[in-house]
Design goal:
mainly alpha; 3 domains; 61% helix; globular
């Protein structure tokens, strides 16, 4: 079987190997028996030859699958050799990466980025073009999805700008306010780098000492992109500078990179206290002498670009930006629709959800003003706000843990398979909260030593009213991101890249679908304001379709997008500004939520109609989740095969 790079879905089948047992003849048999035996052998000879051919075919199939497995492993190593900190995030072994990486730093120079993309795209062609004779549905699906994944991670071959992100593939701006190595790497070191012995501690210090080379490579990549007239919108660069200022604000010896190191060392047994103090001094020295000067350099370079930075807010203003956006729609929205069609879907969904919110508000006595205005009024009521204090933040985190415990207990009837990994709630670090989203999820380590983390942004306590937090929790934790990602990672029979597959429409679509399932499970009974919060969150995602296509296709300004989102959703201004600036930095990413959810609901409705009483929602959820994140065209085929099998 040969797959095209357009990811054509092929039929699935199975190969059955048949073994024949031949009985030998006893020498005491008489002539009649011998003659009968000879005739039997003559009659069975074609069958034996056919079986031998099948046996050879089976051996060839096994050999082919072994060859494909080696290519999949090569793809994993190609990515993580260049992304050592992401390997740390996932807790990969030295064998899985193909080298010792715990003391390695990443290199984003134009040459290194080009080498990574070239290798991944070559592997895409190799996987897609592999003449796999297997009729196994799992083997076919692996080949199909792995060809898609290497293309996803490799980025569009016509665009050498930006950088490859292990979560979203090609990210257009290596310096911005919300993601990228300058933001992600310090966070991974603080949260995810293990220190189990003195060697681990030295590896951490070694990485601190390589921040100058890391940031030097980012400076080179930034300069190379600017030379191609590819430069981020001014507000995104201004946000990056604010992040640098916050990063550099503490004294070096009090920086979170040092504090995290001290905390990890304190838990380490077997290392004398005197030695620990020497290690701490080394870490402080590296932060002061290497990390801080490097960040000051990239901050100065970013400031120097302000006069060149674009005033336009959309990717359309970049060279060949329309083509870039259409590819982002395919990769992050998993859709072949045009931006114009998606914009209209967004408007239609905004109208539908707004009508449902209006009904709830009127039932609670709020009948004056637009839906957005009424939601703002509800949000500002003291009964729905946590105190803007340490105590208020602690109370909020306790409530989130309570919501997770409550829904996890009630999920048993609708979700058969439970993930083996735990989830933990944490507030975003203060130094990154200004540019961070309202909520975010990071996966557990493969070995389970680190839980999945549901991050929540507590920069503005008015942006997290009590009635909005159930839906956010169901989205980020259970049955949303954590449940899906943790189950995906537990599928050890899949190629590793499939276990962490970040297909945006599938992943975000599932999380948004989870919010609706929670409502169907009765989590909002006698809680009209909680249901209002759920609908506000869904409206937020519908509005995203409108503003993302507005910014990047219809050439809306930042201010135009902010005004539309604020008016429609009634969200806190701080949230709306951060969201719009996020979409400016991540063209297309905001499309995956609603497009993915709509597709999952469409497939569920189709299965329910086709199967009638045979439809089992828990089985459907296992079907969607246990094969891991996949392109929607693959999920659709799986659902159709499931329906056919149950019929």
């Amino acid at each position: 079987m040969k797959l095209s790079t357009s990811l054509r879905v092929l039929g699935a089948g199975s190969v059955l190997a048949t073994a024949l047992v031949i009985s030998g003849c006893d020498s005491s048999n008489n002539g009649t028996k011998e003659k009968a035996a000879k005739e039997k052998v003559t009659q069975e000879k074609p069958a034996l030859q056919k079986n031998a051919s099948q046996d050879l075919s089976s051996k060839n199939e096994v050999a082919q699958l072994q060859d494909l497995t080696k290519i999949y492993q090569k793809a994993t190593q190609a990515l993580f050799k260049k992304r050592a900190l992401s390997a740390t995030l996932y807790g990969l072994s030295e064998d899985e990466v193909g080298q010792y990486y715990a003391d390695q730093m990443e290199d984003y120079s134009p040459e290194n980025e080009a080498a990574l993309r070239t290798e991944l795209l070559a592997l895409t062609e190799k996987i897609a073009g592999f003449a796999n004779q297997s009729k196994s549905s799992s083997a076919i699906e692996n080949q199909l999805v792995m060809a898609s994944l290497t293309r996803y991670f490799g980025g569009h071959p016509d665009f050498s700008i930006g950088y490859i992100d292990v979560w979203m593939g090609l990210s257009p701006f290596i310096v911005n306010q919300i993601n990228g190595p300058l933001i992600d790497i310090p966070r991974y070191m603080q949260s995810d780098q293990k220190i189990s012995n003195e060697k681990d501690a030295m590896d951490y210090i070694e990485r601190l000492g390589k921040f100058d080379s890391l940031i030097g490579s980012i400076q080179n990549k930034l300069s190379a992109d600017v030379k191609k007239n590819w430069i981020a919108p001014k507000v995104n660069l201004q946000g990056a500078v604010r992040y640098f200022d916050s990063f550099l604000q503490p004294k070096p010896e009090e920086h979170p990179l040092v504090n995290a190191f001290v905390e990890k060392l304190a838990l380490l047994d077997g290392v004398p206290e005197e030695k620990k103090q020497k290690l701490i001094q080394l870490a402080k020295q590296k932060v002061a002498d290497v990390v801080y000067p490097a960040y000051q350099k990239i901050s100065e370079q970013t400031k120097s670009l302000m006069d060149k930075a674009r005033d336009e807010s959309g990717i359309w203003a970049q060279p060949n930006g329309d083509k870039y956006y259409q590819d982002a729609i395919r990769q992050l929205g998993d859709s072949d629709r045009s931006a114009e069609e998606i914009h209209q879907i967004g408007l239609d969904e905004v109208a539908r959800v707004t009508k449902e919110m209006d009904a709830i508000l009127k039932s609670q006595g709020y009948d004056k003003g637009s839906v957005g205005e009424r939601v703002i009024a509800v949000t500002e009521e003291p009964r729905f706000l946590y105190a803007d204090s340490d105590e208020g933040r602690k109370e909020l985190l306790n409530d989130l843990n309570g919501y997770i415990a409550e829904i996890t207990e009630k999920m048993a009837d609708l979700f058969k398979t439970k993930p083996p990994y735990q989830v933990e709630v944490r507030a975003f670090p203060v130094e990154i909260q200004d540019g961070a989203p309202g909520g975010q999820y990071t996966p557990p380590s493969v070995d389970g030593s680190k839980p999945g983390i549901y991050w929540i942004n507590l920069r503005d306590m008015k942006a997290v009213p009590k009635f909005s937090l159930k839906s956010l929790t169901y989205h980020e934790a259970n049955p949303g991101h954590h449940w899906q990602v943790a189950l995906n990672m537990a599928q050890t029979e899949l190629p590793f890249l499939r276990r962490i597959a970040p297909y945006n429409a599938y992943v975000e679509g599932w999380a948004l679908y989870s919010e609706q399932v929670a409502a169907e499970m009765g989590l909002y009974e006698n809680d009209p304001f909680g249901d209002l919060g759920r609908l506000q969150a869904e409206l937020f995602r519908a509005v995203r379709l409108v503003v993302d296509t507005g910014l990047h296709h219809k050439r809306w300004t930042r201010e135009q997008a902010i005004a539309y989102m604020a008016e429609q959703t009634g969200s806190a201004e701080s949230d709306v500004v951060a969201e719009i600036e996020r979409y400016m930095a991540w063209p297309g990413q905001a499309l995956g939520y609603k497009l993915g959810m709509l597709k999952i609901l469409e497939l569920r409705a189709h299965a329910k109609k086709a199967l009638g009483e045979k439809f089992d929602l828990a089985e459907f959820h296992d079907l969607v989740l246990l094969g891991g994140a996949v392109p929607m065209v693959v999920l659709e085929r799986k659902v159709k095969d499931w329906i056919a099998g149950k019929k």
